[in-house]
Amino acid sequence: xxxxxxxALQAEEGALAPSxxxxxxxxxxxxxxxLLKPRVMSLVVFSGAxxxxxxxxxxxxxxxxxxxxxxxxxxxxxxxxxxxxxxDIDAVxxxxxxxxxxxxxxxxxxxxxxxVTLAVGSVLVMGLALNICAAAILALSICFYVFVYTVWLxxxxxxxxxxxxxxxxxPPVIGWAAVTGSVDxxxxxxxGIIFIWTPPHFWSLALWANDDYRRxxxxxxxxxxxxxxxxxxxxxxxxxxxxxxxxPYMIGFSGIAYGLIAGLLGLxxxxxxxxxxxxxxxTKGNSLSNDAPAKAAFKYSVLYLFALFGAxxxxxLLG
Length: 319
Description:
73% of the residues lie in helices and 0% in strands. The chain contains 16 helices and no strands. It has helices spanning 6-13, 29-35, 38-54, 61-85, 87-92, 108-129, 132-153, 160-169, 171-180, 185-208, 210-216, 221-224, 227-244, 247-250, 256-277, 292-317.
């Protein structure tokens, strides 16, 4: 597939990132913040904070803030290293080619150094200020995201999001471990919820960013298996997800309020996903509505996870 590789496409399109010797732009603080992927970071930090909040035990405010700060910095480090490694395909994709590295505002070397420094620092501080268990899981999450997802899976298999989704599911476990110094059943339930939520969330995005991934040679599920199969997989994972979100109530960790909210949120998610499945399609499964249902499902999926974990925390605080 030499004609679909990033290097070939760069030669064809001719409108990609300049080489390091041609860079004349200077980065400001906003570019360094952009390296951290703040939009992705917000959900990671939120789920980590929820894990910390609902865990049995207590941390004083300083230690709680330190734990959340470490999770935040580690998430940003993953984003920076990911942008460094993916700078070639980011330059090809329309939605990413203005990122600081492919746009020429930050050179690859400093970006990598920035990410590695943040990663090491976050793990060291977590270990020294909180406990070894939380630090070890934080280190595992960074290594999983960088080496397993970014380096190994992303460019090799359409299951990249399924397996790699574990990286984004670690934060509530880290928050829980920061308080308890251990990994317990409820922390694994939260991990499982995010793990199963990730494929329908990301594949909804991949449906309408399909051309970008094909152009960059990234084997996302819509590129490899087609839009029709992707829609079916989104529905299957959501059908598994909704009952899983009821487990905290079923094992007695949360009350009826959380159970009702989780059920209602899940029904709405299923309805959005069903619209994706029944979207008007051509013979190849491509949307005839500009993937409007997929875009709506993607946006709702973000709100869904925020609301679900928020309900879990509120229910826990109310006893």
